[in-house]
Specification:
alpha+beta, five-stranded antiparallel beta sheet, 3 helices, disordered N terminus
C-alpha cells in the first residue's frame, strides 16, 4: 500500500502529496463510522499503514486505506513531509530485505 501511494504521489502535484497519511502507532488503529471517533468501527489501519486523507476536522481525518474509509484521530497519524519520509524509509527497508 505504501509503495502504491508513493508511486501515485510521485506523479502528482504537491497538493496531492499532502493527502498522504501514515500510522505512527505500533498497534493497529481503528477507523470509525462517525467523526466523534466512537461507536461503530469500519476497519483498521495496521501499524505503519498508509492511506489517503479525504477530509479533515479539528481532531480527526477521514481516511481511505484499501477497502476501508473511516474517521481516525489525528494524534496517531503522520501527514505531509513526515509521512512521506517515513513511507520512503519503510519501502527502502522492504526492498533491502527482498
Amino acid at each position: 500500500m505504501i509503495q502504491q501511494i508513493l508511486i501515485k504521489k510521485s506523479t502528482s502535484d504537491e497538493h496531492d502529496r499532502k493527502k498522504l497519511v501514515v500510522s505512527k502507532s505500533k498497534k493497529s488503529l481503528f477507523m470509525f463510522k462517525t467523526n466523534d471517533l466512537k461507536g461503530s468501527l469500519v476497519g483498521m489501519l495496521p501499524a505503519g499503514g498508509a492511506g489517503e486523507i479525504l477530509g479533515e476536522g479539528k481532531d480527526w481525518y477521514l481516511v481511505n486505506s484499501g477497502y476501508y474509509t473511516g474517521f481516525m484521530s489525528k494524534d496517531s497519524l503522520m501527514t505531509g513531509q513526515d509521512a512521506e519520509e517515513y513511507a520512503k524509509k519503510i519501502l527502502a527497508k522492504k526492498q533491502l530485505s527482498a
